[in-house]
């Protein structure tokens, strides 16, 4: 009897730190199953909020782990963003543009951003997942703008122009012949890490005041597939 107790005392520490392999002779976890896994019965859980706590997932190596259900859902949320200028900003923001050049439009606030993809410091959107995106931007210049050359707005993808709208702002006897608004609606195919930015354009050297009202100067980005 004493020898049996002694043997158990020796084996217990080993069993406590051992790994069990089913279908493998080289287990890498406390229980390593190489093959199908089946649970015949489970205890019913009547607490509906339990699913919000966490769910079990399997990674690429077959490891079973627990993760917040919220994180799983959010990782597959499509992009929906609307941004503009900070409320209480000056009525206009001055944008200085050199001839035949582009200057970043400093949209610095977000109304909503489901995947946290727009950086208000760099004024840049960075895609977190590949897909087709609908992009819209609108700006309104000070109605008193008179430009002897093109003035407009452009959308850049990865630092390269993707779409642009520009034309000359003309007045006749103090009356605007064309509107001071510029806007673009376009579709883009993006990969993870691709960027989008918005810039003002001018064919000549100008300093233009962009109205900061949220219903006149803003942008939207949403993933369509």
UniProtKB/TrEMBL annotation:
Keywords tagged on the record: Signal
Pfam families: C1q
Signal peptide range: 1-18
Keyword field contains RNA-binding: no
Ranges where the C1q domain occurs: 100-201
Official protein name in the record: C1q domain-containing protein
Protein's organism: Flavobacterium gossypii
Organism taxonomic ancestry: Bacteria, Pseudomonadati, Bacteroidota, Flavobacteriia, Flavobacteriales
